[in-house]
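Final report, Chapter 2: Outcomes

The project's central promise was a pipeline that accepts a single protein chain and returns its three-dimensional structure in a standardized token representation, suitable for archiving and comparison. That pipeline is now operational. To close this chapter, we reproduce one record exactly as it appears in the project archive, with the input sequence first and the structure output second.
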Amino acid sequence: MGKAAGRDGATAVVIDAETVPFIDVSAVRMLDQLAGELKARGVRLLLARDVGQVRDVLSTADAGAELRHVHPTVREAVEAARTGT
């Protein structure tokens, strides 16, 4: 994902987490690493529509601030990417 986002001029990647019923600390670390790699290329990684457990683990696993802010809808995540908020 990182190479593709850096190549095509993308400025953000939005993950719709609604269908992710479970996430563990290892996955949070991997997402944090991906977010860092993307950020180095000027690309943001944003999450949208979590189902609760994901949000809880992101908070307790000490995820980066960008990942802890889960947008309520994909549209809001896209808007945040567009406006830089």
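Archive annotation: The chain has a mean pLDDT of 86.
This record, like all others produced under the grant, will remain available to the consortium after the project formally closes.
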